[in-house]
Design goal:
The complex is a heterodimer.
Chain A (H helix, E strand, L loop, with lengths): L3 E5 L7 E2 L5 H4 L4 H5 L2 E4 L2 E4 H4 E4 L5 E5 L5 E2 L9 E4 L15 E4 L15 E4 L19 E7 L13 E6 L12 E7 L13 E6 L10 E6 L3 H11 L6 H5 L2 E6 L7 E6 L5
Parallel strand pairs in A: 1-6, 2-7, 6-8, 8-9, 9-10, 10-11, 11-12, 12-13, 13-14, 14-17
Antiparallel strand pairs in A: 1-5, 2-3, 3-4, 15-16, 16-17
Chain B lengths: L8 H7 L2 E5 L3 H4 L3 H6 L15 E6 L11 E4 L5 H12 L6 H5 L5 H13 L2 E6 L1 H4 L5 H14 L4 E6 L6 H12 L5 E2 L6 E2 L6 H7 L5 E4 L3 H4 L2 H9 L2 E5 L4 H5 L2 E4 L9 E4 L5 E4 L10 H13 L16
Parallel strand pairs in B: 1-2, 1-4, 2-3, 4-5, 8-9, 9-10
Antiparallel strand pairs in B: 6-7, 11-12
Helix pairs in contact in B: 4-6, 4-8, 10-12
Classes of the chains: A mainly beta, B alpha/beta.
């Protein structure tokens, strides 16, 4: 499979803004055209080959080598193709993305998949804050697609998300599912405080006990069937979940009554009898 | 989000019959606030002054302001967000979990009484301080209180106003708002304003080390910001404009002494309710004003060739 390989020459002092580095822009361009695409460093405009060594062209399969933790907006609004990072990725990775696949070998920064509407982002390290969130002043966060995080995630995970799935294997910080309007968040190692605050609709599933907000009320204990379908779907992406978790029983909390909302939080409460 | 429902301090003086101070200690930090604007003055619709007003203080400890309060509610540290969220549920007569409410340090009865008072007020005002906005939850704590104030307008008139710290913070916010559309955390590098607190706000930029120079104007971040942010200011060229030598000046490459605004330089200061007040200087200063220094720097930079070539990148539309 042909690839266009971008190797970062050196880590920039000031973050680079590289919204042109998406399969939608790069796929149809020649090697020379890709190398001359503009990047912004603060106020200054540079060329892609000022910072990256470019190999290959004419493909929607992009590969990034080197620590791109300071390169922002890669994969912005991509609709097809594939982006692979061997190391870290910077802020706003896959923001507004509509389709395609992004895989990150290292960590990603804040606003991964901000307001995305389709596609898959799989992060093998940690993610920053506001993953799958809405931008400031916007009413809807991610509207579709899947974000899988093998490490931990920061604050405001899935803030105002509307649809889609976020699954996190590691611990998550405050305000997971803040003002959620739909979609699903799976927390495999629990979260800190204020999970599901101000949620209107949507589902948060936690395999560890959660510190609940006072505005949630406990409903019943049951085994939701749809979780098994999620297991299968996640396994297809190589995101495995413990068998126990999917056959166990869950305590269902509903809230947030301050909105008032009809969101649900399912907390695993032991294997089925 | 609710947005900020606000008013002037004149309206507070003439109308407010319920005053709530949240996470602040005005008796010691804003000593003239009670007597000039909020609590003591007789107003048009509160003819008996203090007697016509109820004052509620919410804080984590009993400060000097508690003596001035009719009701003091002691919330546990970092439980403000939970408390406000419970109040939002209570004003809508929605159920809450009694046991978890108790973790805020207040009973459900106390909060129900508080919610009733908020709803029954003729004109209520929240004044909130750094005890709310700078503790765990930060911007969401402020957002919670602003939303509560906005929602209370379904029952009565209610406003929320932040108690400002030193310097003319309100002025900075107001000017940024009418020039760029956003109050703070604005990036103008691409030629148009972009707003993203957390990405472009000062402390975050400095801690991540995202800037290669720092210009400090009318502030002393060297005394107040976290150590990693100060370390970055030491690493990069930092320029300070200040009438006196500050903590920041000591770590800066350049310190430019300027005239003191209001004493030896004219200008406009914004009061905490966003009312612009002209400053008439009684003295003359040998030093240039902040404005003059910035203008001269700007003129010198403008003589340099432009950084932005006319070609714009192709970006897919979203």
């Amino acid at each position: 499979m042909s690839q266009t390989i971008f190797t970062l020459k050196q880590r920039p002092d000031v973050p680079l803004e590289a919204e042109v580095l998406t399969p939608d822009v790069v796929a149809s361009l020649s090697h020379g055209e890709v190398a001359s695409l503009p990047l912004f460093m603060g106020k200054r405009q540079f060329r892609v080959d000022d910072f990256f060594e470019v190999n290959g062209s004419g493909t929607d399969n992009l590969v990034f080598h080197g620590d791109c933790g300071r390169v922002k907006w890669i994969g912005r609004a991509m609709s097809h193709g594939r982006i692979t990072f061997s190391s870290h990725a910077g802020m706003h990775l896959g923001a507004y993305m509509k389709g395609g696949i992004i895989k990150v070998g290292g960590d990603a920064s804040d606003w991964v998949g901000g307001e995305m509407s389709g596609g898959l982002i799989h992060i093998h390290g940690h993610a920053g804050g506001q993953t799958g969130a809405a931008y400031r002043g916007s009413m809807k966060g991610m509207k579709g697609g899947t974000i899988l995080i093998e490490g931990s995630a920061g604050i405001e995970l899935g803030m105002r998300m509307r649809r889609g799935l976020i699954a996190v294997r590691g611990p998550v910080r405050d305000f997971a599912g803040l003002q959620m309007k739909g979609g699903t968040i799976l927390l495999m190692s629990g979260a800190e405080i204020r999970t599901g605050a101000w949620m209107v609709r949507g589902t948060i599933i936690s395999l560890k006990p959660l510190k609940m907000m006072p505005t949630f009320s406990a409903g019943c204990v049951y085994n939701p069937n749809f979780l098994r379908l999620y297991t299968k779907s996640l396994a297809e992406h190589g995101f495995t979940t413990p068998v126990d978790a999917w056959h166990g029983v869950y305590r269902r909390y509903t809230g947030d009554t301050s909105v008032p909302g009809k969101g649900e939080i399912l907390v695993w409460s032991g294997p089925a009898h | 989000m609710g947005g900020k429902v606000s008013c002037t301090l004149g309206e507070v003086k003439n109308r407010a019959d319920l005053i709530v101070y949240w996470g602040g200690n005005p008796a010691e930090c804003h000593p003239r606030h009670f007597t000039k604007y909020s609590l003591m003055p007789k107003g048009r619709f509160v003819p008996n002054g203090r007697k016509d007003r109820t004052m509620i203080l919410v804080d984590i400890r009993e400060t000097a302001s508690a003596k001035a309060a009719d009701i003091f509610l002691q919330v546990r540290p970092a439980k403000d967000f939970e408390m406000i969220t419970v109040l939002r549920a209570l004003i809508k007569e929605q159920p809450v979990d009694t046991k978890l409410v108790a973790e805020t340090g207040l009973t459900l009865e106390e909060l129900t009484d508080f919610a009733q008072r908020l709803k029954k007020a003729k004109f209520g005002v929240f004044f909130f301080g750094m005890g709310l906005s700078m503790t765990r939850g930060k911007h969401m704590n402020s957002a919670a209180l602003l939303t509560l104030a906005a929602e209370l307008n379904a029952f009565t008139k209610f406003v929320a106003m932040p108690m400002r710290g030193h310097g003319n913070v309100t002025g900075g916010d107001v000017i940024m708002r009418w020039t760029t559309g956003y109050p703070f955390g604005v990036n103008l590098a691409r030629g148009y304003p972009r707003f993203n607190p957390g990405e472009y706000s000062t402390i975050d930029l400095l801690i991540r080390g995202d800037t290669d120079a720092v210009l400090v104007l009318g502030a002393d971040p060297g005394a107040t910001m976290p150590q990693p942010a100060i370390d970055h200011m030491v690493r990069v060229p930092t320029i300070v404009l200040d009438p006196k030598v500050t903590h920041t000046s000591k770590i800066a490459r350049v310190h430019i002494t300027t005239a003191v605004t209001g004493i030896s330089a004219p200008g406009t200061a914004y009061r905490m309710d966003e009312i612009p007040l002209p400053l008439k200087p009684p003295l003359k200063s040998p030093y240039p004003t902040d404005e003059e220094v910035i203008r001269r720097i700007y003129q010198a930079v403008a003589k340099k060739p432009p950084l932005m070539p006319p070609v714009r990148p192709k970006v897919p539309r979203v």
